[in-house]
């Protein structure tokens, strides 16, 4: 079943971007997860500065890489809507 606002012959990435999960388009959902990952990365940095035991720099680094990967996926999905790929 296609979303009503996407052409039937739309490119595959654009179809994925418009697909709805929990009532939100996948592009928007990935954006929310990305925002949450960036906030968690900042929280880990603050906890590390306050010498919280579980907050290591390695954990902060892993969350930063995860946030950047999610941001790149979000950017590709969002650009596919406007550029059409």
Task: Please tell me about this protein's structure.
With 85 residues, this protein is mostly helical. Helix content is 68%, strand content 5%. It has 3 helices and 2 strands, in the order H-E-E-H-H. A two-stranded antiparallel sheet has the order 1-2. A hairpin with a 2-residue loop joins strand 1 (20-21) and strand 2 (24-25). Helix 1 (12-18) crosses helix 3 and helix 2 packs antiparallel against helix 3 (57-83). The chain starts with 11 loop residues before the first helix and ends with a helix.
- Annotation field: number of helices: 3
CA distance, first residue to last residue: 20 Å
Q: Which structural category do the helix and sheet elements fall into?
A: mainly alpha
Uncertain stretches of 5 or more adjacent residues: none
The count of strands amounts to: 2
List keywords for this structure.
mainly alpha; two-stranded antiparallel ribbon; 5% strand
Summarize the structure.
This protein is mainly α and 85 residues long. It has helices spanning 12-18, 26-49, 57-83; strands spanning 20-21, 24-25.
SSE inventory with pairings:
Elements: H1 12-18, E1 20-21, E2 24-25, H2 26-49, H3 57-83
Antiparallel strand pairs: 1-2
Helix pairs in contact: 1-3, 2-3
